[in-house]
Design brief:
Helix content is 25%, strand content 38%. The chain has helices spanning 39-51, 66-69, 99-115, 146-149; strands at residues 2-15, 18-23, 26-32, 55-56, 62-64, 72-77, 120-123, 131-145.
């Protein structure tokens, strides 16, 4: 699994001009589910996101987690994170998990975020054409890849 997270003061996702998910302070997360990903990757990534300390404390140091600030996550599935751009100029998306595998794992990931203490999890719609509105705070943008988080 790959995730791009942005620390945000406000984020929303719209479909056909209608807001379907919205948070204030927290993480805007683009989630790419890659061929071969399992619940093991979802568990590790959900735990990492819930506990990642990138919010400012009283000394303006990145020392607080999402749970510490009672922040939310706006989660949007994004198969393009599985892009392979090694050959030519047109990306191949063959490494992205097929929808029949990715969607149940995406739904499982949402449950794992809740289990890890994230109370507010807003989402887009899996597979839909969506428009994102992100107010990046910092800017703080972090790329997480379970290939680097899990010892295999």
């Amino acid at each position: 699994m790959k995730a791009i997270l942005q620390r945000t003061t406000h984020s929303s996702v719209s479909i056909d001009g209608e807001i379907v998910g919205e948070i204030q302070q927290g993480f805007m997360v683009l989630l790419g589910i890659i061929e071969g990903d399992t619940k093991k990757e979802a568990d590790a990534l959900a735990a990492k996101l819930a506990g990642l300390r990138v919010f400012s404390d009283e000394q303006d140091r990145m020392n607080l987690s999402l749970q510490d600030i009672n922040g939310g996550i706006l989660l949007v599935s994004n198969f393009t994170l599985g892009a392979d751009c090694k050959k030519g100029r047109r990306p191949s998306f063959s490494k992205a998990a097929r929808p029949e595998v990715a969607k149940p794992l995406y739904e499982y990931f949402i449950q794992q975020l809740h289990i890890n203490g994230v109370e507010q999890v807003e989402t887009g719609e899996f597979g839909a054409d969506m428009e994102l509105n992100i107010t990046n705070d910092g800017p703080v943008t972090i790329i997480l890849d379970t290939d680097e988080l899990i010892v295999k």
